[in-house]
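Memo to structure team: turn this sequence into structure tokens by end of day. - J.P.
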Amino acid sequence: MSDAARPPAPAARTPDNLAMLARVKGARQAILKELRKVIVGQDDAVDQVLIAMFAGGHAMIQGPSGTAKTILVAALAKVMDLEFKRIQFTPDLMPSDISGTEILEEDHTTGRRFAKFVKGPVFSNIVMADEINRTPPKTQAALLEVMQEKQVTIGGKTHPLPQPHYVLATQISQEQEGTYPLPEI
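Reply from structure team:
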């Protein structure tokens, strides 16, 4: 078997690795204890979101209206002491509405004009993309770029997102009017 085909060796059980696992387990337990003060009966959703976040990824939270999806994400941000922004996706939402835009400003002392970047709501640690499939594909694509690159490029200038950075999205049923299909990832 070639080295390329051989599965990776399991992580060594070094004191450092065991200590790191103990810290992750302790953090998870502390987060769950606090979340259970606010969220009741959503253990599977909470576990799935935490798994995604601990893995450094993003998550889609699915469920009918009124099942505390927004409350879960807001409470999670509060418990983890992270900045939280919610974006309500609508058919008229433009990519610049989520990523930010450059505006023209004038220096009153010199009269010179300059472009100033105004950050959009994706410049937060936890972004809730609420009803993401209500917005057109170009805005969905802008969010996917943010998720993958962890940065925004406007006017040829790259703006890194705060770390850590998580996007937790919800979607509504595809059968409802006014929805757009999500791209396959």
